[in-house]
Amino acid sequence: MTTTITENEKLTQPTFDPRELRSAFGQFVTGVTIATSRDLDGSLIGMTANSFSSVSMDPPLLMFCPASHLPSLPAFERAGHFAINILAASQGELAKHFARPSENKFAGVDYSSGIFGAPVINGSVATFECTLFASHDAGDHKILIGEIHDFVANPESRALVFHRGKMVTNHNERKSHE
Ligand SMILES: Cc1cc2nc3c(=O)[nH]c(=O)nc-3n(C[C@H](O)[C@H](O)[C@H](O)COP(=O)(O)O)c2cc1C
C-alpha cells in the first residue's frame, strides 16, 4: 500500500485520548520520590514525583520532571539546588501528603537539613543532594537535571513502588534473576 503525504501528516499530529495515554504510561513501574529544596527566603518546598531517572555517571546527573504550572517550580529554579528522596515502602502516607498543595508541608515531617539546605527526609531508601545543572522546557513539564554532590543509600530497606496509578507497599521481596 502506498503511504500518502496526508497519512504521514496525520502521524505527526497525534490525537491521543489523554486518559488512555496516562494509563499506558502507568504500565511502567516506578519508585516514588519527594523532591525538596529550600527557597532563597528559607522556606522549604517538597513535591512527590515519580518522573525521576538517573542520567549520567560522569558527571553524576539525575533528573525529574515537575509540571510547569506547579507553585513549587519557580522555587526549585531560584534555589539552584534540590534533593531527591527515594521513599521507603513504609512512607506511602508521606508520598500522598507531598502530592497535595499545602501551606507548610514539612510540619511534623522527620527530616534533616542537607548540604545545600534542602530537606533530607529521614527513613528514605536513598537521598541525592544536587545543584541545578540544567532546566529544559518539555511541553507542559520541565526537565530539571541535578548534579549530584552527595548521596546516601540504605540497601536494606524496601522501596515504595508506583504502578497503574497506585502505590504498592506490599510487593514481594525481589527474586534474583542474575
Ligand atoms: C506517585 C505520584 C507521583 C507524582 N509525580 C509527579 C511528577 O513526576 N511531576 C509532577 O509535576 N507532579 C507529580 N505528582 C503530582 C505532584 O506531587 C502534586 O502536583 C504536588 O501538589 C506538587 O506540589 P506543589 O503543589 O507544592 O507544587 C505526582 C503525584 C503522585 C501521587
Structure description:
The structure is a single chain. With 178 residues, this protein is of the alpha+beta class. It has a single domain, classed as Roll (Pnp Oxidase, Chain A), CATH 2.30.110.10. 16% of the residues lie in helices and 37% in strands. It is built from four helices and twelve strands. It has helices spanning 5-12, 18-25, 73-79, 92-97; strands at 30-31, 33-38, 44-49, 53-56, 61-64, 81-86, 111-113, 119-121, 126-138, 141-153, 161-163, 166-168. Strands 3-2-6-9-10-5-4 form a seven-stranded antiparallel β-sheet. The chain has a three-stranded antiparallel β-sheet with strand order 1-11-12, with no helix packed on it. A hairpin with a 5-residue loop joins strand 2 (33-38) and strand 3. It starts with a helix and ends in a 10-residue tail after the last strand. The model has no long low-confidence stretch (mean pLDDT 92). Flavin mononucleotide is lined by residues 32, 47-51, 64-67, 70-72, 95, 99-101, 162.
Write the layout of secondary structure elements.
Blueprint lengths: L4 H8 L5 H8 L4 E2 L1 E6 L5 E6 L3 E4 L4 E4 L8 H7 L1 E6 L5 H6 L13 E3 L5 E3 L4 E13 L2 E13 L7 E3 L2 E3 L10
Antiparallel strand pairs: 1-11, 2-3, 2-6, 4-5, 5-10, 6-9, 7-8, 9-10, 11-12
The structure holds flavin mononucleotide.
Flavin mononucleotide (FMN) binds next to strand 3.
What keyword list fits this structure?
binds flavin mononucleotide; 16% helix; alpha+beta; 3-stranded antiparallel sheet; 178 residues; 7-stranded antiparallel sheet; 4 helices
